[in-house]
Structure to design on (107 residues):
């Protein structure tokens, strides 16, 4: 007696029903995930990224986006404006740190 290893063709085998998260709308998935994140933060068990971890995660995501061809390509004007914005933010943060420590700006 020989058995065939090919699955029987049934409607259920041809198109499996989505279950769990896969069956939910993206908004429903997001709402449930948000509740889980809030609960983890409330319990103190949520992961808190260090600056180095966040920087590496950003690099990894950027590499993946470039490899897929989905990364945003800055125009020269956009890049210039982003650099200005970062410079301003850095200067503001340094000024706030100096003010908090009571240090005066060196002239």
């Amino acid at each position: 007696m020989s058995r065939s290893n090919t699955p029987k063709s049934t409607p259920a085998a041809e198109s499996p029903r989505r279950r769990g998260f896969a069956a939910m709308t993206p908004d429903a998935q997001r709402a449930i995930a948000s509740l889980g994140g809030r609960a983890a933060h409330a319990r103190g068990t949520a992961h808190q990224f260090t600056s180095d971890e966040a920087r590496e995660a950003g690099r990894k995501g950027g590499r993946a986006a470039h490899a897929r061809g989905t990364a945003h390509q800055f125009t020269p004007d956009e890049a210039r404006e982003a650099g200005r914005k970062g410079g301003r933010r850095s200067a503001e943060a340094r000024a706030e740190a100096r003010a908090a420590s009571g240090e005066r700006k060196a002239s």
